[in-house]
Each structure stands twice: as structure tokens, then as C-alpha cells.
UniProtKB/TrEMBL annotation:
Source species of the chain: Megaselia scalaris (Humpbacked fly)
GO terms, molecular function: extracellular ligand-gated monoatomic ion channel activity
Protein name: Neurotransmitter-gated ion-channel ligand-binding domain-containing protein
Domain Neurotransmitter-gated ion-channel ligand-binding: 11-73
Pfam families: Neur_chan_LBD
Any one annotated GO CC term: membrane
InterPro entries reported in the protein's UniProt record: Neur_chan_lig-bd, Neur_chan_lig-bd_sf
SUPFAM superfamilies for this protein: Nicotinic receptor ligand binding domain-like
Length: 84
């Protein structure tokens, strides 16, 4: 779990989970391995909530740049992350 952003002085909690699809090969000599996985994040940002008579709100794709998203990073030194 990571805390990245504050909303009115209260941190927004970002929950994560990871599903490992495959792992290997493992090299004990190099202390290296490879892994395929899904890394998911989810959070609730109350700044995006609205009240009104409509059930959904459509936004322009241009609005995505203005919406806060977690800036996730890895602290492991020998890490290469490929996102497909």
C-alpha cells in the first residue's frame, strides 16, 4: 500500500496487488531472474465524485492529463520493467 497524494490534508491510499503469470529462468550465479506479472493499482479520489440527476459523466480524453494518478516506482536496484 502506498500513500502518494493528499486530499484536504488526508492522504489518498493507493492499494496494489500483483499476479505473477510466470517466473524464470533463475540464475543463482548472477542472482537474476525474470518474471511476467500483472501489477494493479486502485484508489478512490473524492475530488472526482459528483452529485446530480445523471448516472454517468463523459469527459474528453484531454482531461486525463489533469487527473491525478499514482507515480509508482521500484526501489530494487537490478530492475527492468517492460510494460505492454
Amino acid at each position: 500500500m502506498f500513500v502518494h497524494c493528499f486530499l484536504l490534508g488526508v492522504p489518498i491510499i493507493v492499494k496494489t496487488n500483483m499476479l505473477i503469470r510466470s517466473m524464470g529462468p533463475v540464475s543463482e550465479l548472477d542472482m537474476d531472474y525474470s518474471m511476467d506479472c500483472y501489477f494493479r493499482q486502485y484508489w478512490r479520489d473524492k475530488r472526482l465524485s459528483f452529485k446530480g440527476p445523471i448516472q454517468s459523466l463523459s469527459l474528453s480524453i484531454k482531461m486525463l492529463d489533469k487527473i491525478w494518478r499514482p507515480d509508482t516506482y521500484s526501489t530494487m536496484e537490478n530492475t527492468r520493467i517492460y510494460i505492454r
